[in-house]
Design brief:
elongated, alpha+beta, 583 residues
């Protein structure tokens, strides 16, 4: 059955029956001959919901994609008596495209792939007749102890996108680990800003060594299993291993980043193949020809349009780009995601009801989500929150890492000791990676104004600063990590670790003498200390006498501004609107 035959009743093409309801201002799908009247929509006799454009199965070692799209809905067009057939299929002789109007500017949002999977059809009423079918496609998991909440205005939120290596689906037996229960093979933490103007997609390497906290998981037989936590474990075993479910991965991400994870979306290997086929292919670019015998990827140099198995090979390959590591594969996946977003926002996608319906069918079949977004209507709520984000303000970044120092020949990685906390702090304070310069300058100006009221005198250089560092934060190693950062990255060589403070401190403070005001201002600039952290004394200090810095409970990490990021960390990132060629 072809795409235009699905759901047909009385020789009326459902793709042609979008009718404006003057009472609601929405376009509604009508499948009967009374469609011209704005009556309540009803289910067509003998109709069936659309299936995916591609019947082929798919597998991905690393699926990823995400897109926000505006979907104009076409006006009503009645099928004419067919005059000819093509390949046994009847075709209409004439169709007119109606004029675009503001009421047709309904948002259709598509998040797809092994890491981003979500399709919404434009207009809640227009999707009514497909609702039950699409809604039934979605697989819902209710993680134990995870609060299901909606989207509150004025609050940022985080969605964890997980692509697993489980070998389910036709044609996927040759991919991934034959015995894998479905690990967190590709993971992106998608942070949406509180003003809904920007988002950050943070990739978490699967070979990252981290702490997996204890969690409870509901097993297929309904039994609740308590799974002990693990220290220094690979991130990807936070899912699947020992019966862990996505809720365990959500807890692991919170432990790692300090961010609450509000929702999750999970897909398996089929997503990349079916979704790229449904959208008509995704444009990718490579700097040199590729012929990878492992992933079976073959591409000429320059730009190519890929879909299905070829798209899967592109996001899975490691041998063709960079230093053949998983970290370089993440970069390729991010490039693929950006291209997928652009394709979803293209006119050829937005003006095709059939293509949008095929995408909706494919994506909802691929999707496993938490209860909080476990229906089409709740996914639509999510779509509304994301619909206004411009692709130029969606930044892809990878968690900064270093080689695991515990391994003689490192094959795993650990978070970068300073850049990772800085990036987490940026997300926690809702700092956009695509608007860094403006926010950095605003924060710097505010900080300077506050400090100017308390501090006077000439600025010192980092080399002039003398300071003793005490740990009152309750975080083990905080003083030493701060000392290392001050000396190695900021040039504050006259600094000393004085170990634990006499008692825990709620706030970080810097105590200084009147003749050390210039040193205090310099250190406050470096550390992002608020004016309230500066405690001036009444007597001048000796020439070699140091200031006293006590790290408090507001300490978030070495190099992380105590006020929240006055600046975003200098990490490699790419915006979704940028075309990048894989190297």
């Amino acid at each position: 059955m072809d795409a235009h035959s699905r759901g047909r009743a009385d020789e009326i093409d459902p793709a042609d029956q979008w009718v404006l309801n003057p009472q609601t201002g929405n376009y509604e799908l009508r499948l009967d001959r009374s469609a011209e009247q704005p009556a309540a929509p009803s289910r067509p006799r003998g109709s069936s919901a659309p299936t995916t454009a591609s019947g082929r199965g798919t597998a991905t070692d690393a699926p990823v994609k995400d897109t926000a799209t505006e979907a104009p809905v076409p006006g009503q067009r009645r099928r004419r008596v067919p005059e000819q057939t093509r390949g046994g299929r009847q075709t209409a002789t004439s169709r007119r495209r109606p004029k675009q109007g503001a009421s047709r500017k309904k948002k259709a949002l598509l998040w797809t792939g092994g890491t981003m999977a979500l399709v919404l059809v434009g207009g809640a009423t227009g999707a009514y007749l497909l609702y039950n079918k699409l809604d039934g496609n979605i697989h819902v998991v209710d993680p134990i102890g995870v609060e299901s909440k909606g989207f509150r205005k004025g609050e940022a939120f985080n969605v964890l996108i997980i692509g697993t290596d489980k070998r389910t689906g036709a044609g996927n037996g040759g991919y991934g680990d034959a015995n894998s229960p479905g690990h967190a093979d590709t993971t992106i933490l998608f942070h949406v800003s509180k003003d809904r103007t920007n988002a950050t997609a943070l990739s978490i390497p699967r070979d990252l060594m981290t702490t997996i906290p204890e969690c409870q998981s509901r097993q297929p037989d309904g039994k609740i299993l308590t799974i002990p936590g693990q220290q220094k474990a690979r991130f990807n075993v936070s899912l699947g291993q020992d019966g862990r479910d996505p809720g365990c991965t959500m807890r692991t991400v919170k432990e790692l980043t300090g961010l609450d994870v509000d929702h999750f979306m999970m897909v398996d290997f089929n997503a990349v193949k079916e979704l790229t086929t449904a959208v008509g292919g995704v444009k990718v670019c490579v700097e040199k020809p590729v012929d990878d015998p492992k992933s079976h990827l073959k591409l000429p140099a320059g730009e190519s349009l890929i879909e299905g198995e070829q798209a899967l090979a592109f996001v899975r390959t490691r041998s063709s780009f960079g230093n053949k590591s998983d970290l370089d594969r993440i970069k390729v996946q991010q490039q693929f995601l950006g291209s997928m977003i652009r394709q979803m926002k293209s006119d050829e996608t937005l003006t095709s009801p059939t293509k949008l319906l095929d995408l909706a069918e494919a994506a909802t079949k691929a999707l496993t989500v938490d209860k909080g977004i476990g229906s089409l209507s709740k996914l639509q709520d999510l779509a509304k929150e994301l619909s206004g984000i411009d692709t130029k303000n969606i930044a892809f970044a990878t968690l900064p890492v270093i080689d695991n120092p515990d391994e003689p020949k490192p094959v795993t990685v650990v978070p970068h000791p300073t850049q990772a906390p800085q990036l987490f702090a940026a997300l926690q304070s809702d700092t956009s990676l695509t608007e860094v310069k403006k926010k950095e300058q605003d924060a710097k100006n505010a900080q300077s104004q506050a400090q100017a009221a308390l501090l006077k005198g000439e600025r010192s250089t980092a080399a002039d600063v003398r300071v003793d560092v005490y740990n009152g934060s309750g975080i083990q190693g905080a003083a030493q990590s701060t000392l290392s950062w001050l000396q190695n990255e900021e040039g504050v060589l006259r600094s000393t670790n004085k170990s634990n403070a006499p008692e825990k401190a709620a706030k970080t403070t810097l105590t200084y003498a009147p003749n050390q005001a210039d040193q205090a201002r310099k250190l406050a600039d470096l550390m992002g200390l608020p004016a309230t952290a500066l405690k001036p004394g009444t007597q001048d200090a000796g020439v070699r006498e140091p200031m006293t810095l006590v790290l408090g409970a507001d300490f978030k990490g070495a190099g992380v501004p105590v006020t929240g990021p006055a600046k975003a960390p200098d990490v490699e990132k790419v915006a979704a609107d940028q075309q990048v060629c894989a190297k």
